[in-house]
Amino acid sequence: MPTSAVLSARTVVGSIAVAAIALLAGVVLGGWKQAQAQEKARAVAITVGNSYACVLLDSGSVECWGYNENGQTDAPSGRFSAVSAGEYHPCGLRETDAVECWGDNEYGQTDAPSGRFSAVSAGSEHSCGLRETSAVECWGDNWAGQTDAPSGRFQTVSAGGYHSCGLRETGAVECWGWDEQGQTDAPSGRFNAVSAGGYHSCGLRETGTVECWGDNWVGQAYAPDDRFSAVSAGWRHSCGVRETGAVECWGDEGYGQTDVPSGRFSAVSSGVWHTCGLRETGAVECWGSYGGAADVPAWLRPASLPSTGTGGLLNRRMSSLELRVIALAALAIPTLSLLTLSAWRRSRP
After folding, report:
1. Where are the chain's structural domains?
2. What is the pLDDT of residue 255?
3. 5: nearest Cα among 342, 348, 329
4. Which of 78, 91, 315, 321 has the smallest C-beta neighbourhood within 10 Å, fewest atoms?
5. Closest alpha carbon to 148 in 128, 133, 130, 134
6. Considering only CA atoms, which of 191, 182, 197, 237 is closest in space to residue 211?
7. The predicted structure's pLDDT at residue 321
8. 143 touches 180 (CB < 8 A)
């Protein structure tokens, strides 16, 4: 082969190899940047729906994962101050105080009214929000009166299966909607928080004790006698964060949704088949199972916080073009070496 031809071949093959190496370096750098961005983002709130979950990050963005047939994990971009996962639809509170919902909209549960809100809660097939005036407004399915919010001023609101509950400014709990299991028969007295579940409700007393009412078929209303800082009523189970930071769950355990891992948590959210907790580090840990919803994204898990910075490369999905170029590089580099050796041998006297 003439030396000029060898050099031409070397130039072509060398160009392919250089391009592929540059591309690979870009992939590594892009993955590193992605991992660095994820390292800086920490979850500040967790909410669980039916086989999916969402977190609010300290950056203001919302990330969701799990079952997505209705688009419930396709969180819109932008900044939020709160998020709530309903059965198959979540709702978020924008930093502008507007409410935006996504996912299943069969009954209008994602058609949030305009205006300013201070809180939002997504239920089974309806949603409720707390106006800046402290009035409650609900939308979506209303077959049991779950969107017929009473007038007056509230501190918080919680949308459940087919009922809703609100915490009055006086500390009293008031519920409305379906009451076949007594889930709207709130006990008297003062509470700090309320959570509406599938067919039961739970409240956190000012004394730190939890009291639940409504359906108790699998023990979901049998709250343990201890002091808690938070409570969450799921479909057929309930969980609370003890003042020690430990989480305790009770009720249906058919899928392991009450098998709490040890350690300290700052928040907990009870879904249908699984439960998720927010570690004090900002990591997310879930237990229970159904359709992989408890499989938390790697960068949010306790083991990956803080990340080593390589997870972005491993998790990044390369395009088919990138894969083909890198494959060509794998062939080009040895070929370039052989051509260089051949040219060197022919050039010797």
Report:
1. 3-37+314-347, 43-304
2. 95
3. 342
4. 321
5. 128
6. 191
7. 44
8. no
Mean of the per-residue pLDDT values of the chain = 84
The vertex-235 CA angle with 232 and 241, nearest 5°, equals 20
Token duo for residue 137: 């407004």
Distances (CA, A) of 60 to 45, 78, 85, 86, 280: 10, 7, 16, 20, 18
**What are the tokens at 345?**
């041998």
Report which of residues 180 and 344 the model is more confident about. 180
For residues 55 and 83, give the distance between their C-alpha atoms in angstroms, rounded to a whole number: 7
Strands ordered across the beta sheet of 136-140: 117-122, 126-131, 136-140
Could you tell me which CATH number the domain at 43-304 has? 2.130.10.30
Q: Using alpha carbons, list the distances in angstroms from residue 111 to 55, 106, 116.
A: 21, 10, 14
Q: In what order do the strands lie in the sheet with 62-66?
A: 43-48, 52-57, 62-66
| C-alpha–C-alpha distance, residues 231 and 210, integer Å | 7
What DSSP string runs through 2-15? -HHHHHHHHHHHHH
pLDDT per residue over 327-337, tens digit each?
A: 544 554 454 44
Residues 6+ apart with CB under 8 A from 263: 245, 246, 279
Residue 256 CB burial class (10 angstroms; 0-12, 13-18, ≥19): middle
- What's the burial of 6, exposed, middle or buried (CB within 10 Å: 0-12/13-18/19+)? middle
Beta bridge partners of 241: 230, 247
Say what the pTM is. 0.78
Residue 187 contacts residue 210 (beta carbons within 8 Å)? no
Q: DSSP characters for 228-286?
A: EEEEEE-SSEEEEEETTS-EEEEE--TTSTT-PPSS-EEEEEE-SSEEEEEETTS-EEE
Residue with tokens 């459940």: 160
Q: Are 102 and 74 in contact (CB under 8 A)?
A: yes
Q: What angle do CA 223, 50, 148 make, to 5 degrees?
A: 75
Question: Residue ranges of the alpha helices (H) in the chain?
Answer: 3-40, 311-315, 320-347
